[in-house]
Specification:
By secondary structure, the chain is of the alpha/beta class. 30% of the residues lie in helices and 18% in strands. It is built from 21 helices and 27 strands. β13 and β14 form a beta hairpin. α6 packs parallel to α7 and α10 packs parallel to α13. The longest helix has 17 residues. The model has no long low-confidence stretch (mean pLDDT 95).
């Protein structure tokens, strides 16, 4: 039997386990990345592990999320990250150098290598042929310390691309079509591998747009082959020596295949408030818009920006529309400034943002009340923009730019002006890594007053009796669990402060209720915890005393983060039993420690109603030990002490 691309990389990095779908395996991690929203906590955890220097080939700490410095908090976090990175052998990408995923792709990504990032959109690296996976900060910290990364061996889904994209149809439409076909949870348990004649017409940045939004359908990661197009990109970045060809074997076996004819695609949009609510722009119609944002780690490459500039050249943004543009990296911004494209954008009325995440995460540029906002980013969850009543549509840069001029959502195929959208790959990108600081190792670590200790769980007790503190529906995102807007992002290193906002979008009284009852249970529907990798969505509930989340199903990264924090991720054996639990019902998990350690049927007793509800938990032997110890950090310390003994 032949191997897929992903299987080849896994095989060459396998540390433990057998490569059979459903088995727990561990792999060696070559590179890591963090960003400042998750990085502070990851480095606090890394310091606790006690390893003096990272053991990866390359680890990079990026500042790209919390870049609005309205107070001292963000700047303090940045200084802490810079100094702790320098001390422990981590490269530091300064604020303004760009969004982590784009800079990693441009300057550090290597085909065939493994990349673990404390950001859910780390699979962007799959566009260059990396096995790039998003994870919680503690998993990243362990790997920086030389530990392996543990995952359930995924199944393989082949996405066969045929044909070639027509004018005004882009890579964004490709991934929106994938989401339309398989939904926000259709990729769970899979790696998506792109193949077929159609991939030959897609550049590395276009491929990266597609793998970036693979996070939205729950896949472990997504990946393209490393081929001559990859070589061309690396050569233009001055890194041709990093090129390695990686293709699937001709007899590789996939568990599932979907086919997309690129030539049949039309301009698409994801409607509010979920990335898989996809329809054609033609069907949605000419709705009036108020704001347009072109940027984010999904669509802020040089090619995206140049297409935008050519559409805007000589035009004026509609007077009812606010257009903001954020190039993805300093490299892109400098090239736009050098070739005059930046002037075309400014002359048209665009407001140019720094090279950072910005509006994508609600960090500035929140729309007005009830606004319609077109965005080229990857998520349109309710309230993520910073305005709960706003309606966010996800679109390509081409749709966004044309619509900014017309003032309504516009199918760009109707655009009367002749615009050359054929943007060839530059023969040489402008390379200047002066905003990347190499480690010095003897640096003194600086901690500001906003940096508080992170919560650490206690070992699992023999039984748990507590209240149902909250009951929520399907598709609760990490934005619901731990909001990440401009007012809260500065406190990502202050768990006690954040605790007053945990799950407040679902129930504003939850934090107070959790504190009043000393913690308890959260009851949830399908796909609980979808969205970002933010570990805070587990750490803050841990601080509030949440003992377990009982759900119909979980998103992959969030489930791993709950396990790492020592919070039980339990599922209903019979999803209809969800209806047997209501707010403040008194619940009991008898003999839970024994059931976790030794296996056996888990039964939840509803002491309020008398119901007995069977539950499941899917844990490897290693994860059972982690849960019993009260989380990965406790387990790692116990294991380290055992090794020394």
């Amino acid at each position: 039997m032949g191997y897929t691309i992903a299987q080849k990389i896994i095989k060459s990095h396998l540390v433990s386990g057998e490569m059979q779908a459903g088995n727990e395996i561990s792999i060696k991690i070559d590179q890591t990345l963090t960003q400042d929203s998750t990085g502070t906590m990851a480095y606090l955890q890394f310091e606790t592990i006690g390893v003096p220097r990272v053991k990866t080939e390359k680890s990079v700490a990026y500042i790209d999320h919390n870049t609005i410095q309205a107070g001292f908090e963000n700047a303090d976090d940045h200084k802490y990250i810079q100094t702790v990175a320098s001390r422990h052998g981590i490269y530091f990408s300064r604020p303004g150098n760009g969004i982590c995923h784009q800079v990693q792709l441009e300057r550090f990504g290597i085909p065939g290598k493994t990349l673990l990032g404390s950001d859910s959109h780390t699979p962007t690296g799959g566009g260059i042929g990396m096995l790039a996976i998003g994870a919680g900060g503690l998993d990243v910290a362990v790997c920086m310390g030389g530990g392996a990364y543990y995952i359930t061996m995924p199944k393989m889904m082949k996405v066969e691309l045929t044909g070639k994209l027509n004018k005004w149809v882009s890579a964004k439409d490709v991934i929106l079509e994938v989401l339309r076909q398989i939904s926000v949870k259709g990729g769970v348990g899979y790696i998506l591998e792109y193949a077929g004649e159609g991939i030959k017409s897609l550049s590395v940045p276009e491929r990266a747009t597609i793998t970036n939004m693979g996070a939205e359908h729950g896949a472990t990661t997504s990946i393209f082959p490393s081929d001559e197009i990859t070589r061309e990109f690396l050569s233009a970045q001055g890194r041709e020596s990093d090129f390695v060809e990686i293709l699937p074997d001709s007899n590789a076996i996939y568990d599932k295949t979907i086919t997309i004819d690129l030539s049949a695609l039309t301009p698409l949009a994801a409607k509010p408030h979920m990335p898989d609510l996809v329809d054609t722009v033609e069907n949605i119609g000419k709705i009036k818009i108020d704001q347009v944002y072109i940027g984010s780690c999904t669509n802020a490459s040089y090619q995206d920006m140049m297409k935008t500039a050519r559409i805007l050249k000589g035009k004026t943004v509609h007077p009812d529309v606010s257009l903001v543009i954020g190039p993805g990296s300093k490299q892109v911004l400098a090239m736009l400034a050098e070739n005059g494209a930046l002037a075309d954008m400014v002359e048209a009325g665009a407001r140019i943002l720094e090279s950072a995440c910005g509006p994508c995460i609600g960090m500035g540029q929140s729309p007005k009340t009830d606004a319609v906002s077109l965005r080229t980013s990857n998520r349109n969850f309710e309230g993520r923009s910073g305005t709960k009543s706003a309606k966010v549509y996800l679109v390509s840069p081409e749709i966004a730019a044309v619509s900014a001029i017309t003032g309504v959502l516009t199918d760009p195929r109707e655009w009367k002006d002749e615009v050359d959208l054929n943007i060839p790959m530059p023969a040489a990108f402008l390379v200047n890594d002066n905003m990347v600081v190499a480690p010095e190792y003897d640096t003194e670590v600086v901690r500001g007053p906003n940096i508080k200790p992170f919560p650490v769980n206690t070992p699992l007790p023999s039984e748990i009796t507590a209240k149902a503190l909250l009951k929520v529906e399907d598709n609760i995102t990490t934005d619901h669990i731990m909001p990440s807007n401009a007012s809260l992002l500065p406190y990502r290193s202050n768990i006690p402060y954040l605790s007053d906002y945990c799950l407040a979008p679902c129930d504003k009284d939850f934090p107070a209720r959790a504190k009043e009852h000393g913690g308890g249970f959260v009851i949830a529907g399908e796909n609980y915890g979808q969205g970002s990798s933010r570990e805070h969505a587990a750490l803050v509930p841990l601080y509030l005393g949440v003992k377990a989340v009982i759900a119909k199903s979980f998103a992959r990264i969030h489930m791993a983060n709950l396990i790492n924090s020592g919070i039980l991720p339990l599922t209903f054996k019979n999803p209809a039993d969800y209806d047997k639990i209501e707010l403040l019902h008194n619940l009991k998990l008898p003999n839970i420690l024994d059931k976790i350690q030794n296996g056996g049927e888990i039964e939840l007793e509803n002491l309020t109603t008398g119901d007995k509800i069977p539950l499941d938990i899917v844990l490897s032997d290693r994860q059972r030990k982690i849960m019993a110890a009260g989380g990965l950090l406790n387990y790692t310390k116990v294991a380290a002490a055992g090794d020394k003994g």
